[in-house]
Write a structure and sequence with these properties.
The complex is a heterotrimer of chains A (221), B (458) and C (336). With 458 residues, chain B is an alpha+beta fold. Chain B is 51% helix and 21% strand. In chain B, helix 6 runs parallel beside helix 7 and helix 7 packs antiparallel against helix 8. The chains are: A alpha/beta (221), B alpha+beta (458), C alpha/beta (336). Chain A: InterPro entries: CheY-like_superfamily (IPR011006), OmpR/PhoB-type_DNA-bd (IPR001867), Sig_transdc_resp-reg_receiver (IPR001789), WalR-like (IPR039420), WH-like_DNA-bd_sf (IPR036388).
Amino acid sequence: MRFLLVEDNAPLATAVVDRLSLDGHVVDHAADLETAKDFSATTSYDMILLDIMLPDGDGSHFLAHQRRKQSRTPIIVLTARSEVSDRISLLDLGADDYMVKPIDFAELEARCRAVMRRRGGDVSNQKVLGKLRFDSGTGVLNIRGLDIQLRTRELRLFEVFINAPGKIFSKSALVDRLFSYDDDVSENAIEVYVGRLRKHLSGSDVGIVTVRGLGYKLEQS
Amino acid sequence: MTQPVLSGSIQRRLLILLFCASALLAVLLYFVVQSVARQVAQQSQDNILAASALSVIDSARSVDGEVIVDLPYSALSMLDSVTDERVFYVVRFGEDVLTGYAELPRPPLSKARQTAYMSADFLGEEVRIASVSRSFSADLGRDRLEVSVAQTLSGQRQTLARSSRLALGVGAGFFALAAVLAWLTARATIRPLDRLAASVSRRGPTDLRPVTAAVPQEMAPLVTSLNGFMSRLEASLNRSEDFIAEAAHRVRTPLAVVRTKAEIIQRHIRKPENKAAMREMIGAIDESSRTAGQLLDHAMVSFRLDSLAQEKVDLASLVNDMVERLRPVAEIAEIDLVIVCSDPATIQGDGILLQNALRNLLDNAIKYSPADTRVEIRLTKGDTGISLQVCDEGRGFPKAGDADLAERFTRGDNVHGIVGSGLGLTIARDVATAHGGRLILENNAGGGACASLFFPSS
Amino acid sequence: MRKLVFSLVLILVTARVAAFEIEDHSTFGPKQAQEVLRILSTTDTAIFAPMIQSYLANNPDTFIDYTVASSTDVMGAVLQQSQPFDLVISSAMDLQTKLANDGYVQKHVSGVTGALPVWAKWNDMVFAFTQEPAAIVISEAAFQGLDMPRSREDLITAMRRNPERFRGRVGTYDVRQSGLGYLFATQESRVSETYWRLTEVMGSLGARLYCCSSQMIDDVASGELAVAYNVLGSYAFQRSDLDGIRIVLPSDFTTVMLRSVVVPKTAPSPELAGRFADHMLEQAHSNSGNFDIRRWLGPSDGAALSRINLGPGLLVYLDALKRRAFQKEWTNAILQ
């Protein structure tokens, strides 16, 4: 996905850009509203992450600007404030969702998906591999015309594989992607979800292959 | 709220003052009326006595050089016409007593004053005496003929008793009228103060605009300082809000940096023991950010509880919004948030606080639920009140209904390994109490905990 | 002070006051009775005895001492205060009023006195218990062939037309001697000029002057007098031995004298005196029985009654100068 991050705090911005890049996303960073407006005018983003407190004004101005332009790009507001009323007014101004810093990236992912799901299917979210079609927005797997709704962890695991077909993922890397940090999980849990995905994929020409000693990879037979 | 220290009441003080003034005037009026009546009674008695004495002196004539006084019958009988009075008289020519009661005291007469009056005791009773004189020629030469007529005072006393009753009536009537007027005056005087008090107390808790209504001159200093106080209070409140927001910003932003970097590092670490250490670190960061969040929430909640807003809150839509909002978070842990029941229900209160309370209950439920379970939300409206219940399928409360759970920073014994500050239930309880309700904690028969906000119907 | 007033009174009641002459004395009830009531009265014992007995009937344990004297003696006794009496009863209402006015009488207030008509009491001191008219007593024989006079005018007319029939046979009070005669005369002269005309007519017929009513009645009864003017009606009505005489209450106006009772300041038993006075007044004003206050007023509707008012007006004719002037005028009229 292509993100626009509007955030004036440089260390945090760098960290977020790095972190999202790790998951294979493309991120543009704007440190103020002017830059953000420039970016959004020239580039089409899948998602805008908008900080509220910016040096040259309130993030709500950017929201209003976007909505005036009738931009369809979803916006998730990042805020460090506590006041719920602030968040509500931001939603009223047209933000699709909001998150309180610090950002739990698993949650961000979930929210992005939820936003996209609310917005309906988007061609750019469609991924095709062999006879398999996957909509990352809705989490629906289509094999030979048959729709399968993946559950959250299955979905997230499958997303990891389909974003990099053929790439080998270790069990521990997968744990990092699937579970939040307060869950006490073992790597055996990964085997359970891999098992479930294999079952879903059994009718297609795509499968998850065990690479002994290294991990798993998605492969077209 | 602290009750003001009372020292009397302006209205009562005004009333008492006016009452005292009225009473004083009434007493004064009583004495004035009585003294006037006394004078009038005295005057009329004196007039009758003088008329009697004059009729006697008019009957005097000189016969053969001798002074003859032919006492007219009416001279004495007229004195007894209304009330029975004892009557005395004496006729003197010079120093000689011609006839009558020689001992009757003699009012001081002079050439200038042809009529004189006096009060005296005579034959055991108080009498009023009138004397008239004129110069008269007789054998013995020219001398003053003087007639004194006296009368007891029973008629005058009767008149005085009557006028005294009248004076008493007038005084009492005056006092009653004055008291009513005093009461009206006191009320009218106090009314602007009442109006000001009413207009201030009618305001919402966040309405700190200056008072602009017209007030009497005397109240201007009060209103000025009230307005000054309110503007300072508003500034102070704004600072508090700003402070909370600022504190949140200052704490969370660095945490966000650290957490994000930690996640990045986590991805690059290969060694399992380092990975585990990094997980713990991220867990610790999450805990402190959550604690900070809840502390700030709690500060915000306390702040808002001090002046509870009274708006109509649609609980059903509030529940729906909050559940939708938390659904992505729940989904990560594969937990289903299910609104089992959503009766239409509204409540008077602070929507933001109620939202916060519900979010804390839902947060807890999501946090303590194992994967692949349901969290059920029920909004029910019964005869006794409105219940907003959040039930999970987790391990339940250590001891159902334990109110200590809601005490600040208290956490159940069985929650090791789960991030939480323990403030969530405190916030929920405080919000429930402020809305006249309570927080009920119980365990399901089939396992799992239920936390309910219960608002009894008033 | 008292002595001075007394001396003043001396002038008008003349020297007879000095000697207190008892005309009659009698006692009623048991001598050992607990309560003793002393009454000084001008009323004959025979006339007042029934009243005393009616009191004793209800209060047997009372000893009543009843002394009769002339009205001037009665007054003198009260003024002297040497002999204490509990009740003083007198027909001389002017003297009774004078006693009260000058402070020799105490007030008496009770339920009975409260109910009395206004004319029957003065200052809660003097209480009237009879009404006694001044009547014309006529010998029927002397008036044979003449219309029976009904008024003073009738009498004047009769006397003027028949001077020979009445010459020397007309009697009336000597107002210089009789206190009652003086009272009647002064009051009538105040009410009507007719009195003087009548007096002059009587004077021209050589009127005979009397001290007392009973003598006048006797002389009319014996035929010595054809007519007696201003006879105390009560005495005449009580005489049952009279034949051929007529008692006339003048229809123009009938002077009515009130017999009254007072409680002197010096009364030894004022409380008992009050009770007895209440009994008398109750009997008199109850409008029934032997003591009915209206019993001597005849069938007249009262319109012609000229009741002498209790009150200080009576003092006017007790004034020495006034008395002298009146008696002088009267003497001029009657002695021609």
